[in-house]
C-alpha cells in the first residue's frame, strides 16, 4: 500500500468508525464481495488513553476506553474494523465496508456511504461548533481603585 | 471486596437481591428508564462514573448507573470490576487537547484570546432556581447557532504566554518515556507526576474538591488563577497491529484545566508562573480544576516549598482519593466480625477481672 492509499484508507476508516449501524447495513446490502472469512471475530477490549501534563509535557495514563475490533477477509481484501465503545455489529460492518472499499465495488460504496456520511459528520461538527460560537463573550472588568485587593 | 469465610444465608441473600431489583424498578406503572435516556439526559452523572470508573464508555456507565440506582460510587465500582474482564488491545498516542472540538473554553487571566472566550453550556450564570417547567414533558427551545463556527484549532492559553518566558514550560522528560499505569503496577512512593495525575484523574470528585478547597483556605500556599478551562471532543487514535498506521476510531469528551500560580523563584531563579494540570473524562470542570490545584500542591518539592498540609502530602492524597478502595475498606466493617469481636470481649473481661483481683 502506498502513502496515498494508506491516507485514503485512514480517512474512510475514521468516517466508518462514526457511521451509524443502519447506514452501513443499508450500504452493504447491494455490495457483492467474495466469500467472507472472519480472521478475527468481533471482540471487545480496551485501549489506554494518555494525556500530557500541561497539554504538552510528561505523558500520563488518563484512563481506559472500550474498543471493539474485527478483521475479515472478503474475497481478496482484508477489512479492519475498530470502533470506540461496545459495538460488535458496528465493528463487523466496518470491516466488511473496509474490505469492499478496497475491491472492485469500492468506488460505488465510496459514493453511496463514505461521501454522504463524511458530509453528515462534518455538518454535525459544524452545527456543534456554531452552537458554541453563539456563546462567545466579551467580558468587561471594572477598573479597580488603587489599593483594592485583587481577586 | 471479596468475602469468603461465611457460610449459609444463601436464601436471605437472594431475597435481598430481589428486593434491590424491585426497589430499583419502582412502581411498574412508571415507564422503565432506558440506557439512552440515562446517557443523554443524565450525562454529567455518566461522566462522573466514567471518570471514577476509569473507563470511557457512556453506554456502560449509563448501565452501571441504572443498576446501582444512581449511586455514582457503586456504579464506578461496577465499571472497575467490568474492565478487569477485558484485554487491553493497545495504547493510543497521547490525546492532543489542542485539537479539541471546543464546546467551552474560558480563561480568567486573558480577556482577549485568539479564538475567543466561549461560554458553551455552563451553570455558572444561572441563579440556581428550580425550573418547574421541567416537571412536565414538553418541547424545549433549541440553542442558538452563530453564523460562523468556533475556530477548529484553538491554542491552549499557557502555550500563548510560554514564549514570553514567564510561564513554566510543559516539556516531556528526556526520551518522552511511556507513563506508569496503576492498573498494572501498584502505587509506590515517591510517586512520579504521571502516577499522581492518573490517580487524581480517577479519584473521587468530592474528596479532590475538598482537598483543593483546603489549599485555597490556607492549608497550602496557593493563590492560583484559572489560566484556561476547556471542554469538548478529542479524537482517539490507535495503531492497529494489522495495519501499522494511525487510524482515528472515534472521539471522547474531556475537560482540561490549567491553573497558574506565581512563585518568587528560589536560589537565584527568576520569578515566574508555575502550572497545575487537570484532565478528566467527560464535562466536569469542578473535578478538572480540583485536580489541577492538587497537582500543583503535590509539586511542592520541585519548587522547594515546605510540605506542611494534607494536599501537599502525596501518600495522604494518593492513598485516600480512590473511592473504590476507600469504600471497600470502610464498608467491609458491615460484614460479620463475630469471632474477632468475641475474642476482644473475652480479652476485656479478663483484663477487668485481673484489675479487680489486683485492687482487692
UniProtKB/TrEMBL annotation, chain A:
Record Pfam families: PhnG (PF06754)
An example molecular function term from Gene Ontology annotations: alpha-D-ribose 1-methylphosphonate 5-triphosphate synthase activity
Record InterPro entries: Phosphonate_metab_PhnG
Biological process (GO), any one: organic phosphonate transport
Transferase among keywords: yes
EC number(s) given by UniProt: 2.7.8.37
Transferase listed as a keyword: yes
Keyword list, A-Z: Transferase
NCBIfam families xrefs: PhnG_redo
Protein name: Alpha-D-ribose 1-methylphosphonate 5-triphosphate synthase subunit PhnG
UniProtKB/TrEMBL annotation, chain B:
Any matching Pfam family: PhnI
GO biological process: organic phosphonate metabolic process
Record key words, sorted: Transferase
EC number of the protein: 2.7.8.37
InterPro entries assigned to the protein according to its UniProt record, in alphabetical order: PhnI
MF terms in GO: alpha-D-ribose 1-methylphosphonate 5-triphosphate synthase activity
The name this protein goes by in its record: Alpha-D-ribose 1-methylphosphonate 5-triphosphate synthase subunit PhnI
